[in-house]
Hints:
The protein is an alpha+beta fold and 285 residues long. The chain contains 8 helices and 15 strands.
Amino acid sequence: MNRDAEGRRHPDLPDFETVDRILREAARTIVLPHFQNLAGDDVRTKSSPNDFVTVADERCEVFLRDALTRALPGSATIGEEAAADDPAVLERLGRPGDVWIIDPIDGTYNYAHDNPRFATIVALVRDGVVVRGYIHLPVRGETYAAALGQGAHDGTGALALPEPAAFGAMTGALYVGKSRAPALFGRIKALRDGGRLGQRRFARCAAWEYIAMLTGRAHYAVFTRLLPWDHAAGILMIAEAGGCYGFIDDAPQSGPWRPVDRDVPFLLAPDAASWRLIRDTLTEE
Length: 285
């Protein structure tokens, strides 16, 4: 057992191997058997025609909920599908104690369309701060992880972000819709039309964008919605790999992340100078 800054006792956290084993078991027994093998009634929509949930999402979330709470006695969970049924479960993030955030299949649109760009994401929040993050790619059999103050790794070695570059030479994942961020959407279009925007990514899966940054295939990412199951683990990984993050109306940050969603675009970059360069370029009149 260990204690936090206020003297509360906490159970020791599960090690990487324990969580990795749980994620691989979920992939082997649930996620992969259903991949490219979904019947018509195995898929339904939620908030919009492109917001899918499958039987694999639901079964995987239950499996992870049970396995992770066994691995960390006394912990609670917030799963994407549970939150869709009852948004009040998000209140657990603001309470003391340990809370697992679970996205059983990030990129369900891809999964339901037989596209291998999907992942399982798990993050652990302790007393409101993200302290562990895991992204597992079932098709590739790869797990990426980060621990607060201990760096990010892929199970074999440390991960580092790409070297800074000129704005036009950077590859960015731009999840900016016209309805959520009309001004930024228009600015990106103008940069593209003017030949100033570098290569763009859009994998339809936040986890794949974080992994692209961590493996040097992308320099930055912009998101306009920070649902905790999509982003808590990835933000921790970027910070632990030496990067910066922040809402574009604020300043670059690094270190501990407390899950929050604001109606302001969110930017992640390799360092503070790159963050400011990208922010300024994307927001200049």
